[in-house]
Design goal:
The chain is 49% helix and 11% strand. The chain has 304 residues and is of the alpha/beta class. It has 2 domains: 9-57; 60-287, Collagenase (Catalytic Domain) (3-Layer(aba) Sandwich), CATH 3.40.390.10. The strands form 3 sheets. Strands 3-4-8-7 form a 4-stranded mixed beta sheet. Strands 1-2 form a two-stranded antiparallel ribbon. The protein has a two-stranded antiparallel ribbon with strand order 5-6. The protein is globular and about 80 Å long.
Length: 304
Amino acid sequence: MSLRNADCRILVRGLTLPFRNRHRVLYAVGALTIFLTAIGSAFAATQWARAAHEKALRSKPFPKEWERYLDKNVKLYASLPSPLQDELKGYINFFVATKHFEGAGGLEVTDEMRVTVAALACMLLLNRKTRNYPKLRTVILYPSAYIADPETDTVHLGESWNDGEVVLSWNHVTSSSQDLRDGTNLVLHEFAHRLDQEDGAGDGVPNLQTEAQYFTWAEVMSEEFKRLRSRVEKGYKTLIRPYGATNSAEFFACITENFFERPHQLKKKHPEIYQELQTFYQLDPASWREQESTYLDSPFKVKK
C-alpha cells in the first residue's frame, strides 16, 4: 500500500493526526503563531511608545518659575544631591503632564499647587526602577481640611483611594512640608499609601524586589508595629507618630515620613526600620544633610 493512500499518521504537538489533515493543522498552527506574534509586536510597540513619551516629557526643560515653587514649598528639595534634583525635575514634568488635578471646595488649582504636590510625591520614586504611579489618575485638592463623610462629619486632611484618586488639603500640603524636624508630611504620607496600594492590597507591604525581602520586611515591621502600639497604649512619647499604630498601612506611611524628614533620628532609634526603607526606596536620606541640632525629638504625646 502506497504512502499516499495509507491512513498514516503524523505527530503534531503531541497529537496523532491523519495524514490528510496535516495541512489544515499546520495552517492553523501557523496562523496562531502569526496572530500571537502580532499581539506581541503590538504590545512591544505600545511599551516602546510609552517609554519614549515618558522620556520626552522628563527631558523637557524645567521652568524657572517651577524651581521657585520648589524652593518655597519643598524644603526637602534643597537637601537632595544634584543628580537626584535633576531626576526629580524629570519626574515632576511627567507627573504634571499626565495626572489630572481637580480643585474642590472652591479651590482653583494653580501651577504652584501641581508642582509642589508632584515634587513631594515623586520623592518616593527617585533612584529606583519604578513607574510613575501608574494607577493614579486624579489629584483632588481642597483649600483646607474637608469633611469626607457628611453623615458622620468626619474631617480629613488627605486620602488615597484604590480607584485612582488622591485627595489633599492644600493648606496642609504646604504647612507639613515646611519643617523637616517634625516628621510629618501630608503628601509623603498619602503617596506612601499609593505605593502600598499598587498591588491592590494596601496592607503596609509595598511591592518588594525579592522573596527574601518580604520575609525580612514582615519580621522587622511586625515587631516594630507591636512596639509602637504598646508605647502608644501606655502613653509614652514616640518618634513615630501614634497614628502609625492604627494599622500596618498607616504604620508604613508614618515611617516613610520619618525616613525622609528625620532620617538621623529614625536610623538611631529604629535602625532596622531605616535599613528596610533604605533597601526599598534605594535612598539614604541620612547622607543628604547633617543631623539637625534642633530636632523636635518627640513631638507626639498620647494623653492617657
